[in-house]
Amino acid sequence: MKSGFSLLELVFSIVVIGIIASFAIPKYMHTRDTALASTIKRDIITTITSVQTHFLINRKIDSISDAITLNETNWDISEKKIIFNEENTPCATLEIEDRVIHLTVDSGAGSVCQSLVDLNVTTQNFDLI
């Protein structure tokens, strides 16, 4: 009676697992990037709405942190500017100047940034009023 697997069976199993992994891993990475892009898009929309609301109520905006609290894992936050970096390259920047919110998206910064553009998040300006 045979008590184990033959070398041919083990090699065949490893090849099958390798083929499955060659399809699954890129799909997983794309799904992860799309999920992060969706989170960044939600953060951008929420920030714009919160800043506009804060400005309408108080007639001034001293800091983005006055209007909303963002996850510092995804965002570099300064007084009137937030930046999402992908691999140390600025991907999405939201900045308040005067009475305008400037949103800048660089689709060439990485795969998450390209996913943002695919989700229709593009460079544009929003009025505070």
Q: Quaternary state, please?
A: single chain
What distance separates the N and C termini? 82 Å
Written as H for each helix and E for each strand, in order along the chain, the element string is HHEEEEHE
Biggest sheet overview: 5 strands, antiparallel
Mean pLDDT: 91
Indicate the proportion of strand residues: 15-25%
Overall geometric form:
elongated
Helix run count: 3
Tally of extended strands? Answer: 5
Number of domains: 1
pLDDT below 50 for ≥5 consecutive residues: which ranges? Answer: none
Class of secondary structure makeup:
alpha+beta
Helix content percent band: 40-55%
Taking all Cα atoms into account, the compactness measure Rg is 22 Å
Strand order of the largest sheet: 1-2-3-4-5
